[in-house]
Amino acid sequence: MSSAKVELYTTGWCGYCLRAKALLSRKTVEFAEYRVDEQPALRAEMEQRSHGARSVPQIFIDGHHVGGCDELHALERRGELDTLLGRG
Questions:
Q1: How far apart, in whole angstroms, are the C-alpha atoms of residue 73 and residue 20?
Q2: pTM value?
């Protein structure tokens, strides 16, 4: 199990959000999901934390802004995701 705190800002209809969650689920990583479509105030929080990023998902690991789905998958391909998750 991951010891890192993983947070995702998502919407219910976002394919990239689904891909990011699927990757984390395959790796048995627990994460907090913040649905900006259900709680609009979270979008402003997301934009502030991500230095203006407006697209979803926006992903944070231990408070560090990773980026979106493509960045998460790139970390996995480079073998760096497990390190960020406290597994390697």
A1: 8
A2: 0.94
Show Cβ contacts of residue 61 under 8 Å, excluding neighbours closer than 6 positions: 4, 5, 6, 7, 84, 85
**Structure tokens of 6?**
């993983």
Q: Report whether 10 contacts 68 (CB < 8 A).
A: no
Residue % of the chain over a pLDDT of 70: 98
Task: For residue 38, give both structure tokens.
Answer: 């259900």
Domains and CATH numbers, the chain: 6-84 (3.40.30.10)
3-state secondary structure the chain: CCCCCEEEEECCCCHHHHHHHHHHHHCCCCCEEEECCCCCHHHHHHHHHCCCCCCCCEEEECCEEEECHHHHHHHHHCCCHHHHCCCC
Q: What angle do CA 77, 88, 71 make, to 5 degrees?
A: 30
